[in-house]
Amino acid sequence: MQHRTDYPRSDHQVALVKCGSYDRVAEALCHGINLLGGLEKYCSPGELLLLKPNLLLGDKPEKGSTTHPLFFQAVAELFKSGGTRMVYGDSPGFGSPQAAVQTSGLKTIAESLGLELSDFLNVMQVSNPDGILLKQFNLAKGLRGVDGVINLPKLKTHGLTRLTGAVKNLFGCLPGVQKASFHASLKDPSRFSKMLVDLAEHISPRLNIMDGILGMEGNGPRNGRLRQVGIVLLSTNPHAMDHCVAQIMNLKPDLVPTLRVARENGLYHPEAIRILGDSLGDCVLPDFDVNRSLASVTGSQRLHLKLLKRWVTPHPALIPDKCSCCGRCVKVCPVNPKAVRFSNGFRQPPQFDYHDCVRCYCCQEMCPDAAIIIKTPMLGKIANHLKL
User: Fold this and answer.
1) Are 350 and 341 in contact, with CB atoms under 8 Å apart?
2) SS3 of 315, please?
3) What pLDDT digit, counting tens, does each position of 142-185 carry?
4) Number of domains the chain is built from
5) Shared domain check, 378 and 262
6) In a domain, 346, yes or no
7) What is the largest CA-CA distance in the chain?
8) Other CB atoms within 10 A of residue 63 CB
9) pTM for this model (two decimals)
10) What is the CA radius of gyration of the chain?
């Protein structure tokens, strides 16, 4: 990747614009970019920019799990008006990028605007000497040669990181099976989050523009409930943006592991965040369904609870009546032996072995039937209440 270094990257400004409909996205984006200093501050004629949407599994737009096509179109048209050239891409959690852009509705928009799908199947090795945890990455080849990345996350909850935001969306820049290998090797949420923060800092998006018009709460990032949030967020600092998203969800930012890592390493300072545009307080949703438990989502490291992990720690739980026995949960499980597996072919729903389960929640995230939820055992609820 090649980046211009004269674009602002270290400030803590977050533009917040209320927008209740995708029909008004273009207007909201123009207002937001002007609040941040104008389009010319973030692009120049002739540059090549890569748009990085959230494709997850390439669901249809009405499911609300991906960057909406009209949002994608408005961003592309905005930067096209600045004279830039653009490509786009993402590596979905299951299936091919080509299938994902087709089903999500992005392909039609991209073709109408002359945007090519970048290579998010093959990898290139890059060094990351300033990394907190990782000193190199195998990134999508599609990032090679671009002048900057425009990150287009979606406002949603997440089983492992509590929310999907600007930082988590960049995980899609790692193609193929390496996503699973990171889940398997970085079992501790802090280490996994250090990897995500390293990745976000290496990619260093030119601008992060969040689709927060229709969000997702509850069993996100794919099978939760749609929630009208009605906002568009823009910022050069992905951590400052995610901090604001946590506040909108009425979630303590330090419960988001990536935010805790970023703050502890001086990558953002909560007290320095400056909101431009509409009031953040007016956008807070006190009853937003998100995990506010103080307990770890993967298990306590305290010995007296670690020994009781199965009966204390939250875990993915299958709803048999919803399960179609498709086997996707088994395929995406990153550990060996599999923590979820069939015991009777595909005739009955698979079963979990919580001794082997690392609580990455890939199965819950990728289930096409909304048949997997995150369940906290009663003993875990008691331990959390007592702050053990």
Assistant:
1) yes
2) strand
3) 999 999 999 999 999 999 999 999 999 999 999 978 898 999 99
4) 2
5) no
6) yes
7) 61
8) 15
9) 0.93
10) 20
